[in-house]
């Protein structure tokens, strides 16, 4: 009769401990998510959306591939591609590499290319606005 009571108490205490641990983990995950959202500058901008989707900042991506950040819409795409291929091949899982590192390298390349593409589009838009709208008009002869 004592064993039955002991097992019941152990199950109840275990369930309480597990429940509290689960609730605390949920609170921490929620707080971490809120902190990540608040720490991103200009939370309505496309850059913050890019950070959320890729999980990398531009600085992190440049450090992973060991390249300079793109400036003025131009990135050294040859250097980025060369570094990407070398690191991606070096971390091939079939050759004893890490799939995790391979995915980080891929995300870093995508992030740098995305940032360069957005900067280039912004520069083109700025140049177009500076030039002004000049429609081609065909006059009758």
Summarize the entry for a quick read:
This protein is mainly alpha-helical and 141 residues long. It has helices spanning 2-39, 46-54, 58-65, 77-90, 99-131.
Structure, described:
The chain has 141 residues and is mainly α. The chain has helices at 2-39, 46-54, 58-65, 77-90, 99-131. Helix 2 runs antiparallel to helix 5 (99-131), helix 3 (58-65) packs across helix 5 and helix 4 (77-90) packs antiparallel against helix 5 (99-131). The longest helix is centred in the first third of the chain and has 38 residues, at 2-39.
Show the helix and strand layout.
Blueprint: H1 2-39, H2 46-54, H3 58-65, H4 77-90, H5 99-131
Brief descriptors of the model:
5 helices, mainly alpha, 72% helix, 141 residues
